[in-house]
Structure formats: C-alpha cells, structure tokens
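Input sequence (371 aa), recorded before submission:
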Amino acid sequence: MRLTIRQALLTISTVSLMLLQGCGEPEPIKIGFIGGTSGRVADLGVNGRNAAILATEQVNASGGINGHPIELLIRDDQQNPKLAAKHASELTRLPVTAIIGPMTSAMAMVVEPIATASGTLVMGTTVTTNNLTGRDDLFFRTLAATRHNASHHARYQLNQGIRSFSLIMDTRNRAYTQSWVDDFSDAFKAGGGTIIKVIPFVSSTHAPFPELARQLVDTQAQGIGLVSNSVDAALLIQHIRKNDSQVQILTSEWAGTERLIELGGQATEGIFVSQYLDRSSKASKYLNFRDAFLNRFGQEPGFPALVSYNATQILFEAIRRQRQGESLKQTLLRIRSFEGVQKPIRFDDYGDTTNRTYITQVINGRFRVVE
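Predicted structure, token format:
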C-alpha cells in the first residue's frame, strides 16, 4: 500500500511523539513532609523542613534514586490537628510514596491513623510519645520514646542531689508532654525523689507566664521542670529567675532549640536541657552535615534538623534498596540498622528505636554535654 505525503508525515509525527514520550524524564518519587512551619513553635518545623530539603537536594544532585528525582511536597500543619489531618488525607490521595513528619506528637496522633489506613508509611521526626510505641502500624521513628528520655534525665537529677521537683506541661501537645511528665515522675519517685506539683497550661501568647512562674517557685521544690516548646520555656525561665535565682531548672528535649537561648538570654545560664544532639561533636559525618546546612540556610542546624535529616536519609535508603514486591515497611525491617549523623539507628519489630539522649547544660550561652 502506497502512502500519500500527508499520511507519511502523520506517521512520522506519531512515531516521533512516541519516541519523545519514551525518552521523557523519569517520573519523580513524591514524598510528603508535614510540620508546623509557622506560628509560635515554627523553629521546630522550619528546622526540620530545611533538613528534609537539604537531604532531597543532595540526593537529586547525585542522580536521584535509581534515576528518579525526589519531589518533596511540603505542608504546614500550624500545630493544628484539623490541618494535619487535611494534609495527611491530601498527600495519601495523590499518592505519595511516604510522609516525613510531623514534628510534634500531638500532630502524629492525627496523621498516623490516616496514613496507616491508606497504606502510606510515615517516617516520624521529633515524635516520642509513648502512645505510638509497640504498635503494628506504618509509623516509624528515629528517636526513642519518652520513657527512655525522661527517665534518663530524672536519674541524672537524682545523681545531682536534687530530691524534689515541680513540673509544668503544655497541654496543646499532651501526647508528648503527658508521656514525658509521667515517665520523669515515675523514674524520679522510684529513685527516692518527690514530685510536689504538676501544673498544666495551654500554650499561647496570652498564657499567664508571670503567674505560672510564681506558682512553680512557691512550691519550694529544689528543681523546676519545663515540658514545653522553646518560646514558652524561655519566657518561663525569665520569670522564674526574677523570683528565684538559685532553683535548679530543666527542660525536656522539645525546648532544646537555638531559640531557647536566643530568647531566654542570660536567664538560661546554668539550666539543664535534654538533647538529641551533641553540638560539640567533631565526627566528620556531623561536621559535613553541619557545614552543608549552614551553607544552604545560613543558620546552625538544631536538633530538629538532625532528626529530620536522619529520617529523610533513612527513608531514601529504604526506597533505594526496596525489592520488587516488598513494601517499604518490609524493607525497613529487613535492613533494620542505619547510620545516623551522630548515632546508629536500629528499628525493632514495631519501627521504634531506643537511642539515648544527651544531658546538656547551658554554659556561656551554649549547650554543653554533661552526660
């Protein structure tokens, strides 16, 4: 059969289009990120988001994963459960391969069931509530639960000779703060200490910080523990110091960002802070990460950045090593052990890990590891 010129041109055009489509760019691997990147606790979310961006840019610069670029889809939950649920539902419908985050335990309690129901794996960042421990779900995390972290700090304070504590906790992130208070209290009392009072409050710009500080000091406890974000902790420390310059003060890991010292100033000198990060480390892997983060964002990477970077790197490695017919959960549990920036990370059968925190003290305006 002879082709007319018109038919021949159409045939050539069709074949060319098919060839172009066949040689098109590889489909990106879509990864969601959920975190609070605006509002009063944005230091946590912004730091974590930036680390995920850095890890994504690095893997894309090296050719992506098996030739596929990573597309990071960032969503701001504003520490609002309704927004977190909305973002989780949207991302799982796209769908994304996995979700990184969220940055607080309260938001994780909302995101996890939505993700698990859709079959989407969540690689948690700074989420340590006991409520997600030992569950056969699709939630993994690179940090130990509060029962390890808070009890470690309780034993340290006992060894320092402190025998009584009063605590204050932010109920807006109760999934985390209640776990931390309970675990600290249990370990402290088991070692012979006394918890005099626990004061709940709701984090906001209108919270009565002077009055809350006065209530804590009036208990005459040897130590005061703040289980809150860095902004609230800084305000409370300043007001506590106006009433008592000597009482021992500690914060949970949540407050341990650079913002704490920046806002609290001289009042933070001498306080104790549980940390996921040793900022004085000379290990090359940490220094390389720190330099890359500084060069990219112009600021020091705090603990949220370290944790988020670890979580993102582990997720990318799992995707890279995933076998045909294997779910991401199966891949992670098959590999189990991963190299973190400062510590190895090993998952148990439920996607939990047991790495310990550092105890730091603010000395000359810096977090110094004391244990």
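Checked by second reader. The chain has two domains: 29-143+282-346, 147-275.
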